[in-house]
Amino acid sequence: KPLPSTDRLDVGQQLLLTDADLWHRSVHVLRLEVGEQCWVFDETFCVLLSLDVLAKKGVIQATVKAGKPVEILRPEIHLYQAQLRRDAMDSVAYFAAQMGVTSLIPLVTEKVQRSYWGGDKEIERLKKVMVAACEQSKQYKIPGVKEPMEFAALLAVLQKVGIGKHVVFYCELDGKPFFELLRDVQATNYQ
User: Fold this and answer.
1) 129 within 8 A of 90, measured Cβ to Cβ
2) Region for residue 11 given its phi and psi (left: phi exceeds 0; alpha: psi -120 to 50; beta: otherwise)
3) Nearest 5 degrees, angle CA 177-CA 127-CA 119?
4) Which of 73, 126, 127, 149 sits in a 20 to 30 Å window from 100, CA-based?
C-alpha cells in the first residue's frame, strides 16, 4: 500500500500509520517494539522509521529517520515463467523478487503444469510472496505481476520490439547458471 505523502516526508516528521496489515506484520511477525527502527516501503519510496507507539487496532505512530526513492535496477529483468504448481510458482516469485526482477509474467505453454489461473487473487497472492522476499533481501523494488501470456504472444512481442534491444535468456535445467548469464550481460555494459 502506498506510503502517506511520500513526496513530502522530512526527517523528524511524525507519521500516523493506520494499516492493519502493516501493524500485524510489525507486532506479530517481526516482533518490533517501541524504540526500534524499521524500513517501510511501497513501490516508489522507502522510509526508515523509529517506532514511537504501537497502539492496538492497527495504529502505528513513528518518526521519520531517513527516506529515499526506490532504486530501479538496471538492466531491467522481465521473467517469463511457465505456469507451475502453486508452491513452485511461489518459490519462483520469491527468488525472483530477491534477485531484483522487474516483472513476472506467467507463460502458458504446451507443457504447462497447471491450466488454472486465479486472476486478481493469484496476482495478490504472488505480490505478498514477493513483498516477503523483498523484506528479507532489502530489495525495496517490488516486482510487478502480469496476467498470463501465451508463448506465441511473447514471440510476437519480441519480434515487434526487435530482439536487438533486449537480451533474452532461455533457461533450461541443464543450461548455463543464471548468475553466469547475468555476469555476461554486465560484461557487455548492457543498458
Assistant:
1) yes
2) beta
3) 105
4) 149
Copy the grid coordinates of residue 102.
522487474
* 43: CB partners within 8 A, 6+ apart: 2, 70, 141, 142
- Residue linked to cell 543498458: 191
Give the tens place of pLDDT for each residue, 120-175.
Answer: 888 888 988 998 888 888 777 888 888 888 878 887 877 776 655 555 555 555 56
The H or E element containing residue 149 is strand 149-150
User: Three-class SS of residue 144?
Assistant: strand
Q: One-letter amino acid identity for 100? A: G
Task: Give the Å distances, CA to CA, from 132 to 21, 41, 114, 156, 188.
Answer: 13, 12, 24, 33, 32
Helix then strand then coil, in percent of the chain rounded to 5, is 35, 25, 40
Select from 39, 38, 36, 42 the least CA-distant residue to 6: 42
